[in-house]
Specification:
alpha+beta; Heat Shock Protein 90; two-stranded antiparallel sheet; 7 strands; elongated
């Protein structure tokens, strides 16, 4: 930048022999150039300090050096520093820094040139350029943040892929725990109760056998389904969550629990993953009441907390008490499994003494995974995106504004009308991202407004500059956002002749073009000449937009392919883990559960509870292999021989 500054000034002055001016201004010029360059060297590490340094150098460039070249040099450096601040800091910091800078430069301008319409227009142009630079910088910040988010997603996916087998083991451990706790625990409780009351109520033995046979078959069915599809029998995305909770509670009521249900939401808007988490937590909490507080009054509540969150509560009144016979029925994974289910969807689970003296479990979960409890205020984010999208529009109107207000002979009413036409010409660009082709059509239609102002308001140069600036944005937007990428080139041959015709008609309103009569040949020649001039201009805008579109597409495809490969590896690891667990279920758990059904069918009540405990033990062994992360190449095994009496520790 120092070399460019010296080439622009004082290079020509030295060549012309102006050594006197060189002696007077060389020292401050070199000081400004060196200070600005040093300040810009800090723009990556400390962009705000870099902007402050450039601003300090701006004052001597304006007040001490009699050269517009040096002033323009500092202005360019100033814009570079503003871009760095916008790209590397937050929007509030950027707006405060730029606001102070514009006020500072305005005061310097008034001090050097006095307060006048010219200095006011210069301040407005400075503000417009700075605003456009802020927009470019914020757009760069958004792209950088998007790349960082993509890198984080990829890293998280790789991490999840590496732990896919462990995650699948934890999920299967929860499912196996639910099977063992819900079905087999109820068989143990019922059979032991019938044995205990056999002398007083012998008819309970037949009921216990029937219940054991029926529940054992349900367990077999559930495990077989788990083997084939590795899902629970209760999973169904078609049944509302509230109905599933009521059906679950009905099963525990049949086991002797007094369950009361209250809910103010049916869970119709709850995502499937969250519904499964709520159902699994409710099932585990109810199983714990059967295990540790049999006969207690249990209250299950499902409430809508608002803002996309819901709460599940399971409270008991503490009427039941654990007995020695029920010791050892738990696997120690109940609370852990509930927390894992909740955390998997972004929720929480707490447990502790309840309000009625018993135990209380409370889960708060979002209706959809990853949803925040209170959506953050989006006003600042929306402002940031709009600034990045539209901040260049005022700068795009600067060149037409120069032609508009440079004419001192225009009346105030005429200036107002032409200024309104200029705004109307640029206004459709606000929607260029969402509807690029309609915006281009609106811009072309706006170009035909310039021939119609009354009096002498029609100005071909104003029509040309405003139309060119507006259509550059429109053609670029079509290249970036147009629906069919390879058809967007048509915007170039469409825009150039239409604008050329509009400008030519504007110039020929008084019957003269460039001092010659506006005949057919002259008009046609002007249209062709303007079209030839505008085609490469609009072609460059389209190429720039198409290049940006292609680059974004390549980046998106690369990220998609990388994520796809990681997901494929994770799915393969999870599938391998499922096959390993399915082999263990077929080899051990199914055979032990069939023994429970066989004992019940044959009327051997004394063998039902030990067989059920044996099946529980086998499943617990399988759970243990899942927890310790046995390699997938080594199927989990459970010792085939196990004593059939005594409780499982």
């Amino acid at each position: 930048m120092v070399a460019v500054c010296l080439l622009v000034w004082p290079g020509p002055v030295v060549l012309d022999g102006g050594f006197d001016a060189l002696r007077a201004d060389l020292a401050p010029t070199l000081a400004v150039a060196a200070g600005t360059t040093v300040a810009l060297g800090l723009r990556r590490r400390a962009p705000v300090w870099a902007l402050a340094g450039v601003s300090v150098c701006y004052a001597p460039a304006v007040l001490m050096v009699d050269s517009y070249a040096v002033e323009m040099f500092t202005m360019v450096a100033d814009l570079v520093a503003v871009y760095s601040v916008a790209a590397r800091t937050t929007l509030p910091v950027t707006l405060r820094a730029v606001g102070v800078l514009v006020c500072y430069q305005g005061l310097l301008g008034f001090a050097s040139e006095g307060v006048s319409p010219v200095s006011g227009a210069g301040l407005a142009a400075t503000a417009a350029f700075h605003l456009g630079t802020v927009g470019l910088g914020r757009a760069r910040a958004h792209r950088t943040a998007a790349r960082e988010r993509a890198a984080v997603r990829l890293a998280r996916a790789r991490s999840d892929g590496q732990g896919a087998g462990a995650s699948e083991r934890r999920r299967l451990a929860r499912e196996l725990h639910d099977v063992s706790a819900h079905h087999l625990t109820s068989v143990v409780v019922t059979a032991e109760a019938a044995q205990h009351l056999a002398a007083a109520r012998p008819e309970l033995g037949a009921e216990a056998l029937d219940f054991a046979a029926r529940t054992g078959r349900e367990t077999l069915t559930t495990v077989q389904r788990l083997v084939t599809s590795l899902g629970t029998a209760e999973e169904s995305g078609e049944v509302p969550l509230g109905s599933r909770i009521e059906e679950l509670a009905g099963g525990f009521i049949r086991l002797g629990q007094r369950v009361e249900i209250t809910h103010d939401t049916g869970g119709a808007g709850v995502g499937k993953q969250v519904a499964e988490a709520v159902f699994g937590i409710a099932r585990e909490a109810l199983t714990n009441t059967l295990r540790y507080a049999p006969g207690a009054v249990v209250r299950v509540g499902l409430r809508d907390l608002g803002e996309g969150w819901l709460a599940l509560t399971v409270d008991d009144d503490g009427a039941g008490a654990p007995t020695a016979r029920r010791q050892g029925l738990g696997s120690g994974r109940g609370m852990t499994g509930m927390r894992e289910r909740a955390e998997a969807v972004g929720g929480t689970v707490t447990a502790g003494p309840g309000p009625a003296g018993g135990w209380s479990v409370r889960a708060e979960l979002p209706a959809h995974p990853g949803q925040g409890a209170r959506p953050p205020a989006a006003r600042g984010r929306v402002l940031d995106w709009r600034l990045a999208s539209h901040a260049l529009l005022p700068a795009a109107g600067l060149l037409p504004a120069v032609f508009l207000f440079n004419e001192t002979r225009r009346a105030p009413g005429e200036l107002s009308l032409l200024g309104a036409l200029l705004v109307v010409q640029l206004l459709p660009l606000l929607w260029r991202r969402t509807a690029p082709w309609p915006v281009l059509a609106a811009l072309l239609a706006g170009a035909w407004l310039w021939p119609w102002p009354p009096g002498s308001g029609a100005d071909p140069w104003l029509a040309l500059t405003s139309g060119t600036c507006a259509l550059l944005g429109g053609v670029y937007a079509v290249g970036v956002y147009g629906r069919d990428p390879w058809a967007t080139w048509a915007s170039v041959p469409l825009a150039a002749p239409v604008l050329a015709c509009a400008v030519t008609v504007t110039a020929a309103r008084d019957g003269v073009i460039g001092g010659d009569p506006a005949g057919t040949g002259t008009v046609a020649l002007c249209v062709v000449a303007l079209t030839v001039f505008l085609l490469p201009v609009f072609g460059g805008a389209w190429l720039a937009g198409f290049a940006v579109r292609s680059r974004h597409g390549r980046i998106a495809r690369r990220e998609h392919d990388e994520l796809g490969a990681v997901v494929h590896e994770a799915l393969a690891a999870a599938h391998q883990e499922r096959q390993r667990v399915a082999a263990g279920l077929r080899a051990v758990v199914l055979s032990r559960t069939r023994e429970v059904v066989r004992a019940a069918d044959e009327g051997r009540l004394d063998d039902v509870a030990p067989a059920a405990r044996e099946s529980l033990a086998a499943m617990r062994e399988l759970l243990g292999s899942l927890r310790d992360g046995t390699p997938a190449e080594a199927p989990p095994t459970v010792p085939a021989d196990r004593p059939r009496e005594g409780s499982v520790k």
